[in-house]
């Protein structure tokens, strides 16, 4: 019998690339293999055009700080998301310094993060949010204004035809925000992994997972070219297959996956490469979500830098497909059903009628109506300047809840076996931006006997590993300055 590989990563996205990079740094002698069913890596959720590219640090995303019934806002979750993104920044900065990642501008660029709201209620909320964040060390430099002239300087496209309006509006701005090309980042990480001896196999679809008596996993697969089957044994398996992760985790038979289901939500962008428009907007501008809309559908007008070319995106607009991936199966949504997750999924459907109405409304929108939605941000938008672009599929987590029976969760969730030999990732945003934090947690839970020995290397890669930057203003300031310098970003 052939010797098992030490680590098998299923899926060629940023999560597998990040975990593989960690393992190659921590255990250079371990054997690592990656199986991707498509013809190249980073073609699904990690692809630049399948996501917004926002370096999610809670600088502009309002859903991380919802207002309480009394109008108060709690910055705790926003701080937590920002802390996680700082781990990613530190890791990427270390990899640039080591020559593992290319010139930073190939995957990350300075792009101010803004929030823009209209109406007295939302203006009051945004002011409260600003007051809660302005003293937090990780949010240093956040600016607030209700002055149309100031907002016009920050983002002219927002204010054209609006300067003389009596409607109250306000905006916040953090110059140190970023735009990230997760596709380019993923490809660079995998290139390095292969350079260090890792094996990345494309056009290979995993068809089964079986735990053997010796504790290893037998991974069945089929090559897409020639349809030849095969099997690989692995000591540890990570399932980073996006929306298909649930299918593979169900095949593994681990009890921890029982009760989970996923609900697919697709998306579309409006995109323009018109140089005169692109030149007037250098920011990612988020606003409030529509009533009933999922957090991933918060409208935003974004600068994107992909392969050195700058363009603007607006959206996302929700679409629906039963597929869990853009290149998935139309039977995905049915094939996931098990006795243990049927009731939680039904309860989610019963308890979220506003989401269903929202999705139906989105599906009925023509391109003209979508441009009309853009005009709430950019009053001068013209239909002919914008094209529709399909975004990626997001598989939102549905799971058991002791009180409600089932809940729809917006975020990411790790599902691991009790013995730590297999782990997978379900869910969506903030996903890629917090990949480093998520993979650190997997390292701790899956390799508890090794994590202590790894701490020195982890601190070299991530100086704030094990600590909290926001509680130490000097450390936060130094980290932001150091990573900005290494990644060629605005401090």
The count of domains is: 1
What is the architecture at the second tier of CATH?
A: 3-Layer(bba) Sandwich
- Main beta-sheet strand count, sense and barrel state: 10 strands, mixed
Gross morphology is: globular
Estimate the mean pLDDT confidence: 93
CATH topology title: FAD/NAD(P)-binding domain
Number of extended strands: 20
Could you give a short description of this structure?
This is Probable malate:quinone oxidoreductase. The protein has 15 helices and 20 strands. It is α+β, with helices and mostly antiparallel strands.
Task: Describe the structure using short key phrases.
Probable malate:quinone oxidoreductase, alpha+beta, single chain, FAD/NAD-bd_sf, tricarboxylic acid cycle, 491 residues, L-malate dehydrogenase (quinone) activity
Please explain how this structure is put together:
- Pathway: Carbohydrate metabolism; tricarboxylic acid cycle; oxaloacetate from (S)-malate (quinone route): step 1/1.
- The structure is a single chain.
- With 491 residues, the chain is an alpha+beta fold.
- The protein has a single domain (5-477), classed as FAD/NAD(P)-binding domain (3-Layer(bba) Sandwich), CATH 3.50.50.
- It is built from 15 helices and 20 strands.
- It has helices at residues 14-26, 76-97, 120-133, 148-154, 156-159, 182-195, 245-252, 275-278, 332-335, 339-351, 353-363, 367-374, 435-446, 451-461, 473-486; strands spanning 5-10, 32-35, 108-110, 113-118, 143-145, 169-174, 178-180, 199-201, 204-211, 217-223, 229-239, 261-272, 284-286, 300-306, 309-319, 387-390, 394-401, 405-409, 412-416, 422-427.
- Strands 4, 5, 6, 12, 13, 14, 15, 16, 17 and 18 form a ten-stranded mixed β-sheet that branches. Strands 1, 2, 8, 9, 10, 11, 19 and 20 form an eight-stranded mixed β-sheet that branches.
- The protein is globular.
- The relative contact order is 0.18.
- The mean pLDDT is 93.
